[in-house]
């Protein structure tokens, strides 16, 4: 009995940390999504040119490194907004391209946004409600993302549209798995840093949206 009583505060404390991490993650995620959308809107309104691949990877990996470095301090929050704002600015010219180049471009963009929202909400709700442990997916996801990344580079440099389409499908599935994995980590206490969790979930949402946009743009053009 003494042991049970003695471990009770530890269990309650752990549950408080989990709930706090989950709450703070979703709040920060909502704020960064709004900020990213604002930056996308600004880049569309200003008609910024598309970002080059070197500039994109330099900005993405550089800001990701800074976010990881400062994830345990208040500077990490600033880095998260810088990273997500950068991705929003990158997405703006792409959205402009679909809207201006395709007859039903606006519909394709809205469908991609709606599909992304449904996928994220459904997967997150499933993990939170069932509380299933998806930690077994870690190795498979990391390997899959590396393979998809290298295949994506190959499709760009060798101009292979079919491979590019396959890469988009791969990233959509892998990012969906990453949402389930990271949400599972949070609710089981494996992830206690809401800044790190927010970045993972945001990048997953970004990948799903851009992948859906690419797939729908190919098959949905009138």
Q: What this model shows, in words?
A:
This protein is mainly α. The protein has one domain. Helix content is 84%, strand content 0%. The chain is built from 7 helices and no strands. α1 crosses α3, α1 (2-45) packs across α7 (194-219) and α5 (138-157) runs antiparallel to α6. The longest helix is centred in the N-terminal third of the chain and has 44 residues, at 2-45.
Note the gap between the termini.
Answer: 70 Å
Q: How many H/I helices?
A: 7
Rounded to an integer, what's the Rg over CA atoms? 19 Å
Broad shape: globular
| Assembly context of the chains | single chain
User: How many distinct folded domains?
Assistant: 1
| Uncertain residue ranges | 1-7
Mean pLDDT: 89
Strand content: under 5%
Number of strands: 0
Spell out the helices and strands N to C. HHHHHHH
The biggest sheet amounts to:
none
Brief summary of the model shown:
With 222 residues, the chain is mainly α. It is 84% helix and 0% strand.
Topology:
Blueprint: H1 2-45, H2 53-69, H3 75-101, H4 105-130, H5 138-157, H6 161-187, H7 194-219
Helix pairs in contact: 1-3, 1-7, 2-3, 3-4, 3-7, 4-6, 4-7, 5-6, 6-7
Please supply descriptive tags for the structure shown above.
single chain, 222 residues, mainly alpha, 0% strand, disordered N terminus
């Amino acid at each position: 009995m003494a042991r049970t009583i003695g471990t009770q505060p530890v269990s309650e404390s752990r549950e408080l940390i989990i709930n706090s991490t989950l709450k703070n993650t979703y709040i920060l995620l909502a704020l960064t999504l709004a900020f990213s959308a604002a930056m996308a809107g600004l880049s569309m309104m200003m008609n910024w040119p598309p970002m080059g691949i070197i500039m994109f990877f330099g900005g993405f990996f550089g800001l990701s490194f800074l976010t990881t470095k400062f994830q345990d301090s208040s500077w990490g929050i600033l880095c998260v907004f810088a990273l997500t704002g950068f991705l929003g600015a990158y997405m703006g010219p792409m959205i402009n391209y679909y809207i201006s180049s395709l007859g039903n471009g606006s519909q394709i963009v809205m469908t991609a946004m709606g599909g992304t929202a449904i996928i994220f909400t459904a997967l997150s709700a499933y993990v939170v409600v069932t509380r299933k442990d998806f930690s077994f997916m870690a190795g498979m996801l990391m390997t899959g993302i590396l393979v998809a990344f290298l295949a994506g580079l190959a499709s760009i440099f060798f101009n292979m549209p079919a491979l590019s389409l396959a890469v988009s499908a791969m990233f959509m599935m892998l990012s969906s798995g990453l949402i389930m994995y990271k949400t599972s980590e949070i609710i089981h206490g494996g992830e206690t840093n809401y800044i790190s969790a927010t970045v993972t979930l945001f990048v997953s949402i970004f990948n799903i949206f851009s992948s859906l946009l690419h797939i729908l743009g190919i098959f949905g053009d009138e």
